What we know:
alpha/beta, 7-stranded mixed beta sheet, 11 helices, 7 strands
Amino acid sequence: MKTHYRLDGPPGAPVVTLSHALGATLDLWDAPAAVLTRQYRVLRYDVRGHGASAVPPGPYTLEQMVDDLRDLLRSLGIDRTHFVGLSMGGLIGMMAALTTPATIRSLVLCDTTSSYGPGLQPMWEERIATAERQGMTDALIERTMEIWFTAPFRESHKAVVDRMRQMLLNTDPRGYAAAIRAIAGADLTERIRAITCPALIVVGERDPGTPPAMARVLHERIRDSQLVVLPNAAHCSVVERADEFTRLLRTFLDGVK
C-alpha cells in the first residue's frame, strides 16, 4: 500500500497524526497543522483511495485502514502518537485505539460516530451507486457541501468551500465508494468502552451527518472523555470553526500527560 503523507514540525517533538474525512485529503488540515507544527511533529496522510495515496480495488475495511496507519507509523519510526480524526478519520482512530492501544497516546474525535446505523444505509448505497456509475457528480458534491458547512459559512467563505469542493471533485470515485463500504456498516458502539487513553470529542452544533446525539454516545462510553459542541458549525467543524478548534486542540494536547 502506497500512502502519501506529510511530516512537519520539530524533530523529536511529540507526534500528532491527522486523519481526514471521506472524500477529502490531508490538505483539509492545513490550518491546524500550521499552528501545531510550532510545537509538535505533525503527520498528515491520505487514507487509501484518496488524494495521492494508492487506490487498491475495493471494498475496503476499517481494519485495512488501521493497518495502513500502523504500517505508515512503523515506516517512519513512530512508536506513539496523538491521533486526531474527522468523520471517517475518527472511526480509524477509534479502531486503532482498540487494536493497537500502545500506539495511540490520545484521541481527538471530530464530527464522527461509532455507528451510522441502518437508517443511513440507503443514503450510503445511493452515494456508492452514483460514484460507481457516474463518478463524482456535481449533485453528489453539492449535497456533501450542504452537510459539511452551514449555509451562512458557504456564502461568506466561498474560497474555503470551493477548495473543499475541489477535493471531492478530484477524489477517485472507486476509492470513494470502496471507503464508504468500510465505514457505513461499522459498529464500535460497545467496543469503545475499552478505550482508556485521554479523549476529546468535538462536534458541530448543526452537524446533520453525525449530530451531537452521536457525539454524546461516544462521550458516554469512552471513560473520562471530554465533549465540546462548537456553535454554528456543521459536519466539517474543524474547518468552519478552524481557529476555535485549533485552540481547543492545543489546550487538550498540552494537557495530556
